[in-house]
Design brief:
single chain; alpha/beta; Rossmann fold; 5 helices; 40% helix; globular; binds nicotinamide-adenine-dinucleotide; SDR_fam; oxidoreductase; oxidoreductase activity, acting on the CH-OH group of donors, NAD or NADP as acceptor; Sc_DH/Rdtase_CS
């Protein structure tokens, strides 16, 4: 039996498109309201519109907005803190937090590429976001979902820094799986979807 999540509030990083938007719409189809955080304003606002459309399809009429967009760089702790505050101001609760924002690149790491940025977005910001979500959930519980990758488990020769960052996400998540406070902390190790991850192997 599916858990009843209608009326809950979710917060998803990197939800302007791709997997983040798909997660936002899947939750919206079950009557969940969503904070859409991203750097891409136009696409983020489109996710908000699609969440509203999804709620209309299931005749769900929330008392607070169906969704809001927040422009934020997850690597900037002050911006992330302000985003959590804004989410709380609008929805008054945080039931589901999804650390989804992620980037590729940083290769070749031995040849001057900015590989630190990949670690900052994919791993450091995930730890920061998880810590803020725990603070928000510690009294009533909730779900934290950290999006890792098949690259967390299987070495990825053309994206070693990405692979290292995602391995960190998976092990960080597993290590706090029993943190208590009614908070479940999970990870998903997604297989390859068509996007920038494919760029380095185009033509192969
Ligand atoms: N697509 C795949 O094959 C695949 C496979 C495994 C895991 N993943 C992971 O899934 C997640 C989503 O990937 P996707 O395929 O949907 O990619 P995507 O590029 O469509 O989505 C990632 C989003 O994160 C946002 N983002 C990037 N840096 C940010 C920052 N500093 N602050 C805020 N937002 C930022 C981007 O603007 C983008 O909208 C990522 O963590 C990725 O590593 C993807």
């Amino acid at each position: 039996m599916k858990a009843e999540i209608m009326g809950q509030a979710a917060f998803i990083t990197g939800a302007a498109g791709g997997i983040g938007r798909a997660l936002a719409l899947a939750l919206a189809s079950r009557g969940v309201q969503v904070t859409v955080l991203d750097l891409k304003t136009a696409m983020g606002k489109e996710t908000v519109r699609l969440v509203e459309e999804q709620h209309a399809t299931i005749s769900y009429k929330p008392t607070s907005p169906s969704a809001i967009f927040i422009h934020c760089d997850v690597t900037k702790p002050d911006e992330l803190a302000a985003a959590f505050a804004r989410h709380h101001e609008v929805f008054g609760r945080l039931d589901i937090f999804i650390n989804n924002a992620g980037i590729g690149g940083g290769e070749p790491f031995y040849d001057g590429a900015d590989w630190r940025k990949v670690i900052d977005v994919n791993l450091v910001a995930v730890i920061e976001g998880t810590s803020k979500a725990i603070q928000a959930m510690k009294d009533q519980g909730g779900l934290i979902l950290n999006v890792a990758s098949a690259s967390s488990i299987v070495p990825t020769p053309y994206l070693p820094v990405y692979s290292a960052s995602k391995a960190g996400v998976a092990m960080f998540t597993r290590s706090i799986a029993h943190i208590g406070m009614g908070i479940r902390v999970k990870t998903i190790c997604a297989e390859v979807q068509r996007n920038w991850l494919m760029e380095p192997i185009k033509g192969i």
